[in-house]
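User: Please fill in residues for this 468-position structure.
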């Protein structure tokens, strides 16, 4: 097998066999006990047996910040875990005003009611009111009984909320892309480590057996020396208003100033906010970061590049909406990144919108929603005892809760999320500047390009300029 091993630099090959290092279990049991005390003091009590097999002291009290589109996936996943208790939800949107379908619950009140109804079904009285709703996430962070938070809000809030959650001693499941820009990602890494917190990045394909299999094959040289990776992102699924668009009145129950938060002041339009924020550079990075945080994450994992990044990035003909449009992110994503070991990664808009194709000197593997390879036998190939094994997780939410309880890194820790988001941000910067850029992945700076370096950070409005 050694002869067939990929020629990735040894320093980039990570022989991890378990999900990261163990960290001191500081404070978890004490916080868990405090949380349980407050929960069980509530008038509508769910007995431990009704909630599942876990004893109360083993339960993780979780609060959800953001009750929009992705919460409809994440909330049921966390509710299904016996040892998790959803104690609070926060959203600047009080209740749905029909941005998808009238039936879809969205906003803090419908989600709070849904959580209470879920637990009520498990009580003899059929009543439960233990989940609270907040408009200001700082109030929720101030609760001593909250062990962990999920941050499932637009990307321009991820860093501020993560840093404040770390300072408040909470563990964090932060949705992908981890950051809005590279400097914010670095800030998040520092905060998590300084405050000794657990952070899972919501790039959930690290918990896919198919993806893990593909990455192990690539790492073990089963397609020979890796030469090229093509990663896919989806086409934009909305077109915003073009130049000359008109502001709209803010809907009742939607706290728009709190939604904007650290982002620049801007007139309200419905296509600026719920779900569509991902197509505006002030809040997100378009499909480059939206789907790129999955596809490029698979590429980074297969290369063993979680502690590094490319050394060069260039635009290959990206397209953007006309100047003056509300949407500002690429309508067609196409960039190339080169790594120090000679591997080139091309990221582009193409159906099915998620996946990575690895080409080596002896074959290829394509993985995403399904697996395909040449030779075809790779689909069922076994990884031998002396070969590189990657950490195993089959459920990203379960993996996070286990990591919180054991106080050890989960499968997608903060550094991993940061480096994957960085690949996407680098691509966006190259596409915006339409030129080839040299990147120093150790110092995390562009070499000899002041304009590019300027795009590594974003300004923040008060009171969201956090001291280091
Ligand atoms: N892992 C995945 O596959 C996946 C899929 C979709 C979205 N996401 C990520 O989830 C995050 C949210 O995306 P979405 O599609 O759910 O967006 P969304 O707009 O539908 O929902 C976001 C919610 O956050 C709320 N919000 C905004 N600012 C807030 C604040 N300061 N405090 C409290 N609530 C606030 C909004 O009102 C909204 O209800 C994004 O980072 C996105 O990239 C991940």
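Assistant: Residues filled in for all 468 positions:
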């Amino acid at each position: 097998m050694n002869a067939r091993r990929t020629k990735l630099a040894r320093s980039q090959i990570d022989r991890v066999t378990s999900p990261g290092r163990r960290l001191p279990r500081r404070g978890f049991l004490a916080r868990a006990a405090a949380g349980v005390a407050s929960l069980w003091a509530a008038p509508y009590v769910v007995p431990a047996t009704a909630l599942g097999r876990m004893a109360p002291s083993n339960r993780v009290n979780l609060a959800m910040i953001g009750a929009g589109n992705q919460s409809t996936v994440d909330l049921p996943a966390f509710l299904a875990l016996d040892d998790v208790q959803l104690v609070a939800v926060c959203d600047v949107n009080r209740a749905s005003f029909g941005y998808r379908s009238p039936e879809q619950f969205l906003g803090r009140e419908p989600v709070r009611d849904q959580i209470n109804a879920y637990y009520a079904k498990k009580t003899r009285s059929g009543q439960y009111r233990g989940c609270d709703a907040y408009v200001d996430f700082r109030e929720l962070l101030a609760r001593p009984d909250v062990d962990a938070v999920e941050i499932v809000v637009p990307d321009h809030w991820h860093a501020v909320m993560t840093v404040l959650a770390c300072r408040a001693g909470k563990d964090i499941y932060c949705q992908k892309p981890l950051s809005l820009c590279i400097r914010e990602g670095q800030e998040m890494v520092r905060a998590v480590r300084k405050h000794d917190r657990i952070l899972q990045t919501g790039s959930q394909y690290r918990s896919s057996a198919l993806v893990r299999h593909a990455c192990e094959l690539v790492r073990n040289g089963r397609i020979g020396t890796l030469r090229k990776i093509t990663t896919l992102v989806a086409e934009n699924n909305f077109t915003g208003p073009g130049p000359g668009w008109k502001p709209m009145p803010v809907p009742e129950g939607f706290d728009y100033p709190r939604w904007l938060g650290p982002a620049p002041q801007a007139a309200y339009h419905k296509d600026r906010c719920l779900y569509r924020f991902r197509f505006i550079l002030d809040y997100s990075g378009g499909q480059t970061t939206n789907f790129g945080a999955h596809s490029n994450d698979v590429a980074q994992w297969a290369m063993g590049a979680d502690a590094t990044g490319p050394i060069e990035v260039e635009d290959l003909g990206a397209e953007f909406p006309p100047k003056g449009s509300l949407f500002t992110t690429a309508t067609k994503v196409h960039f190339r990144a080169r790594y120090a070991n000679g591997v080139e990664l091309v990221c582009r808009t193409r159906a099915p919108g998620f996946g990575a194709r690895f080409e080596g000197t002896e074959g290829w593997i394509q993985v995403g929603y399904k697996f395909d390879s040449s030779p075809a036998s790779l689909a069922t190939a076994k990884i031998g005892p002396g070969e590189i094994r990657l950490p195993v997780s089959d459920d990203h939410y379960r993996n996070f809760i286990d990591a919180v309880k054991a106080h050890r890194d989960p499968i997608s820790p903060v550094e991993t999320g940061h480096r994957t988001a960085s690949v996407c941000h680098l691509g966006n910067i190259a596409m915006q500047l339409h030129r080839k850029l040299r990147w120093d992945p150790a110092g995390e700076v562009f070499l000899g390009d002041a304009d590019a370096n300027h795009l590594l950070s974003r300004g923040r409005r008060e009171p969201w300029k956090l001291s280091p």
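For context: DSSP finds 14 helices and 15 strands in the chain.
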